[in-house]
Amino acid sequence: NLMKTDVKDVNDHYEVAVDLPGFQKDEVNVELENGYLTISAAKGLDKDQKDDEGHYIRQERYSGSCSRSFYVGDIQPEDIHAKYEDGILKLTLPKADQKAIEHQNRIAIQ
C-alpha cells in the first residue's frame, strides 16, 4: 500500500502526487534516466534504541525501501519540479514531444 500515485493531465504538463507517509525528505530520491523517472524511498528503524521499560510485543512501523518507475519520455531533469510536504511528493513534468511517443515499434501477436 506504499507509494499510491495520482497522475493528472493538465494542458501542457502532468502533475504527479505520490503518497510517502512516514518518510522524511532526505529519505526520498527521484532520478531520471533513459526516459524513466524512478522514485524511491528507504527507511530504517534505529536498531540501537533500547527499551528500558520492557520488550516490544508488536512493532508495525515500516522499515525498508520501496520504488516505482514511470516512463516519461525524452525530458530533461531541470524541467521537472519536485516538492515534498506532509508525506506527499508532488512532481510537475512537461509533456514529452508527441513525435517521440509515436515512434513505437509494434509487434504482431499471433
Number of strands: 7
Which sheet architecture does the biggest sheet show? 4 strands, antiparallel
- Overall mean pLDDT stands at 82
How far apart are the termini?
36 Å
Biggest sheet strand order reads 1-2-7-6
Radius of gyration, Cα only, in angstroms?
Answer: 19 Å
Classification by helices and strands:
mainly beta
What does the overall shape look like? elongated
β content, as a range? 35-45%
- Oligomerization status of the protein chains: single chain
Number of H- or I-type helical stretches: 1
Low-confidence stretches: none
Q: What percentage of residues falls in helices of 4 or more residues?
A: under 10%
What is the H/E string?
Answer: EEEEEEEH
Describe the structure.
This protein is mainly beta and 110 residues long. Helix content is 5%, strand content 43%. The chain contains one helix and seven strands, in the order E-E-E-E-E-E-E-H. It has a four-stranded antiparallel beta sheet with strand order 1-2-7-6, with no helix packed on it. Strands 3-4-5 form a three-stranded antiparallel beta sheet, with no helix packed on it. The longest helix is centred in the last third of the chain and has 5 residues.
What would a concise description of this structure say?
By secondary structure, the protein is mainly beta. The chain has one helix at 98-102; strands at 5-10, 13-19, 28-33, 36-43, 64-71, 81-85, 88-94.
